[in-house]
Design brief:
The protein is α+β, with helices and mostly antiparallel strands. The protein is 36% helix and 22% strand. The chain contains eleven helices and 13 strands. The chain has helices at residues 110-119, 162-170, 181-199, 204-214, 220-227, 234-241, 245-256, 260-278, 283-289, 295-306, 310-317; strands at residues 2-4, 14-21, 31-42, 50-54, 57-64, 66-71, 74-79, 82-86, 89-93, 102-108, 131-132, 135-136, 149-153. The chain has a six-stranded antiparallel sheet with strand order 2-3-10-5-8-13. The longest helix has 19 residues, at 181-199. It is elongated.
């Protein structure tokens, strides 16, 4: 999986950085001294489909060419002029449809988002309700949109060409050495979000930002059903959920009555058991699909849970004999298998 952090390597992108907000003391106008990428110009072409993980929320602006992106519930074909807002998480990105694909990728730090909301609080007092699951969100308790990727067209502004002009005004800063670059880019960040608000005719982006501002957390059932088979660390799952690692583990155990590592391992092995019994995928393919990098570790964990090797389970699928093998073992024997809790 390709991980796209908020600090990226110069050889991968041409990028502009700003100082990271200070997480201490709640003073978001200060910096902790480190830098994060604000915007990156992407000009290379991926050779094949990639799984990507955004550790920050991101905005992708397509400058040239075409590409396909997908989330667990969406398939999007984007072209020049399209704008995508990605909530942090995992996505699939197909190879560029043509070799001319170019984009700008903005990394949207959560503290800067909260600062933006606090400075423009009146914009959120007229947020329209968003439909979800066929019904209107309850008044005052608007639900997050189901779409993990929001899509906008840059032509949707009330004054034609304003978003294009914004992008053009940003490009000269690549390679600039002005001592005021950090302050200018923080203003550009505000300008980017205001342009997106104008394009956000359904109010979905406003609702996402309001949830972030209020510190509301991602539903754990939804999170785990979406990311169960993704090769994410516990810290990355916690980040996607909007929790610290300790809060994620605490909330998880309260909700599922077991540790995250134990639950994930058991559910992945249950999925592996289903695949081995009902598809023609071999042991190595199943191991990779459920997130095990080592086939030997997968075999050991599987045998601890089911009492026999995955190869024996696979023989059932292809019609060989399978005589009375036990399909369960006590759950406590799982503690030493797979990833650590």
């Amino acid at each position: 999986m390709l991980r796209v952090p908020s600090s990226i390597q110069p050889h991968q992108f041409q990028s502009l950085t700003i100082q990271r907000p200070d997480p201490v003391g709640g003073n978001e106008s200060r910096s902790d001294g480190s830098e994060m990428t604000f915007v990156a110009y992407r000009s290379d072409v991926y050779p094949e489909r990639n799984e990507i993980f955004f550790e920050e929320h991101a905005v992708v602006v397509v400058l040239e060419g075409e590409k396909k992106f997908s989330s667990p519930t969406q398939e999007l074909h984007v072209r020049k002029g399209d704008i995508l807002f990605f909530q942090r998480g995992c996505y699939s990105m197909n190879e560029s449809i043509d070799v001319n694909y170019r984009s700008l990728v903005f990394f949207v730090n959560e503290r800067l988002l909260k600062e933006f909301v606090s400075q423009h609080i009146t914009l959120f007092q007229r947020t329209p309700a968003v439909r979800r699951g066929g019904g209107l969100a309850q008044t005052g308790v608007e639900l997050l949109p189901e779409a993990a990727i929001l899509s906008f067209a840059s032509s949707g502004t009330s004054v034609p060409g304003t978003f294009t002009n914004f992008i053009q005004s940003l490009l000269p800063y690549f390679g600039s050495h002005t001592p005021y670059l950090n302050e200018l880019l923080r203003l550009k960040f505000q300008e980017l979000l205001l342009h997106l608000f104008e394009l956000d005719t359904t109010g979905q982006l406003r609702i996402i930002l309001w949830h972030l501002y209020q510190g509301q957390k991602t539903d754990l059932d939804y999170l785990m059903s979406t990311y169960l088979l993704k090769p994410l660390s516990m810290a990355e799952l916690a980040r996607i959920s909007g929790r610290s690692l300790s809060a994620f583990k605490r909330d998880f155990e309260e909700h599922f009555h077991t540790s995250p590592g134990h639950w994930i391992r058991r559910k992945r092995l249950e999925h592996a058991h289903f695949l081995l019994r009902n598809t023609d995928k071999n042991v190595s393919e199943v191991s990779m699909e459920i997130g095990y990098e080592s086939v030997s570790h997968f075999i050991k964990a599987y045998k601890l849970q089911y009492g026999f090797t995955p190869k024996r389970a696979f023989t059932v699928c292809v019609g060989r004999d399978f005589n009375g093998l036990s399909n369960t073992v006590p759950e406590q024997t799982l503690e030493g298998a797979g990833e650590a809790d």
